C-alpha cells in the first residue's frame, strides 16, 4: 500500500505537469503513424544537442520517417497546420500552481493539424529531460534512450486504447514495474546521494549489480541496446539552491521500459539531490 501511495503521489505531480499539454486520442495516434516527423534543432547553434540529435535519430528513431531541420518560428507556424507532419522539439514547461515555480525542459512529440494555436496541438509523447538552465551535458548522452521511451509510450497508448486518462496510465505503468535484480544499474557518480556514493555503501541497501559509469560508457550501453542493463535518468536542479524536486527514473537500455520512478523534495541537510538510500531500499524490495 505504501508503494502504491508513493507512485500515485508521483504521478499526480507528473499529471500536473502534463495537464498543460493536449493529450492525443486514438485517431490522432493512428494519424501520427503516417506522418513525417520533423526533429527541430535548437536555435542556439552552439548547443551539443544539435549535433547529438542528428546521430541519435539515425540510430534510434524507427516509428516514422523523419527529417531534421533548424527551427524557424514563421515556418513552423505554417508547417504545424499540416496533418501529415509531426514535430519533435524541446518545450519549456511549468505548472502555474506548482509552488516551487519549477520550469522543466521536455522533449515532446506533437501532431500537426488545423489547430488555431500551437498550444492546441496534441502531444503524443514526451519526457522531462532537465530543469531549464541546467547544462545539457546532464542529459545529452542519454538522448537515444529518451527517444526510444517516447516511441515506446506511443506504442503502449496504441495497444491499450482504454488508457485514455492519466489515472489509468498510472495504474498500467505501476503494474508493469518489475525488479532489476538480474540487470546492471548504470549510474553516474554525481547522481548518487552522499550516503550511497560508493559500491560498498550501495551494497548495504541494494545487494545487486551497480556500475558507477562514465557518460561515454552509458551512451555505449544505450547504443548497443544491452538487454542486461538499466539506466538512471535523473532530473534535478543540479546543486541549485532553489526549492525543487529530484526525479529518478530507471529505464531499460534495450526495451526503454520503465522499471522505477520516484521523486523527492530536496531539503538542505536532510534530503539531498541524487539517488538516495531510500531509493536503493525500494529497488531492493521491488
List the helices and strands and how they pair.
Layout: H1 2-18, E1 22-23, H2 26-32, E2 36-41, H3 48-60, E3 65-70, H4 73-79, E4 85-94, E5 103-111, E6 122-131, H5 143-159, H6 166-176, E7 184-188, H7 199-203, E8 210-213, H8 215-224, E9 229-235, E10 245-252, E11 258-265, H9 277-285
Describe this structure as you would to a colleague:
The chain is an alpha/beta fold. The chain contains nine helices and eleven strands. Helix content is 34%, strand content 26%. The strands form two sheets. The chain has a six-stranded mixed sheet. Strands 8-7-9-10-11 form a five-stranded mixed sheet. The longest helix is centred in the N-terminal third of the chain and has 17 residues.
Give a nutshell description of this structure:
The chain has 286 residues and is of the alpha/beta class. It has 9 helices and 11 strands.
The percent range for helix content is: 25-40%
| Overall morphology | globular
Major beta sheet summary = 6 strands, mixed
Count of structural domains? 2
Number of helices: 9
Amino acid at each position: 500500500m505504501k508503494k502504491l501511495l508513493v507512485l500515485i503521489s508521483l504521478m499526480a505531480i507528473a499529471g500536473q505537469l502534463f495537464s498543460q499539454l493536449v493529450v492525443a486520442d486514438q485517431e490522432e495516434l493512428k494519424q501520427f503513424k503516417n506522418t513525417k516527423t520533423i526533429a527541430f534543432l535548437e536555435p542556439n547553434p552552439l548547443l551539443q544537442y544539435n549535433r547529438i540529435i542528428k546521430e541519435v535519430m539515425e540510430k534510434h528513431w524507427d516509428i516514422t520517417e523523419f527529417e531534421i531541420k533548424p527551427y524557424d518560428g514563421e515556418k513552423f507556424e505554417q508547417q504545424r497546420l499540416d496533418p501529415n507532419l509531426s514535430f519533435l522539439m524541446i518545450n519549456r514547461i511549468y505548472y502555474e500552481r506548482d509552488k516551487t515555480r519549477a520550469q522543466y525542459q521536455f522533449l515532446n512529440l506533437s501532431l500537426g493539424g488545423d489547430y488555431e494555436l500551437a498550444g492546441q496541438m496534441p502531444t503524443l509523447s514526451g519526457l522531462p529531460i532537465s530543469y531549464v538552465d541546467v547544462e545539457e551535458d546532464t542529459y545529452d548522452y542519454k538522448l537515444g534512450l529518451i527517444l526510444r521511451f517516447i516511441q515506446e509510450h506511443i506504442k503502449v497508448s496504441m495497444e491499450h486504447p482504454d488508457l485514455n486518462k492519466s489515472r489509468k496510465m498510472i495504474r498500467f505503468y505501476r503494474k508493469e514495474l518489475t525488479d532489476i535484480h538480474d540487470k546492471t544499474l548504470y549510474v553516474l557518480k554525481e547522481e548518487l546521494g552522499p550516503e550511497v556514493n560508493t559500491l560498498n555503501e550501495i551494497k548495504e541497501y541494494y545487494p545487486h549489480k551497480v556500475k558507477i559509469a562514465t557518460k561515454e560508457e552509458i551512451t555505449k550501453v544505450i547504443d548497443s541496446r544491452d538487454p542486461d542493463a538499466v539506466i538512471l535518468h535523473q532530473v534535478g536542479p543540479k546543486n541549485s539552491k532553489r526549492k525543487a524536486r529530484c526525479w529518478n527514473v530507471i529505464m531499460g537500455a534495450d526495451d526503454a521500459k520503465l522499471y522505477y520512478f520516484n521523486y523527492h523534495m530536496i531539503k538542505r541537510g536532510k534530503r539531498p539531490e541524487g539517488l538516495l538510500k531510500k531509493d536503493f531500499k525500494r529497488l531492493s524490495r521491488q
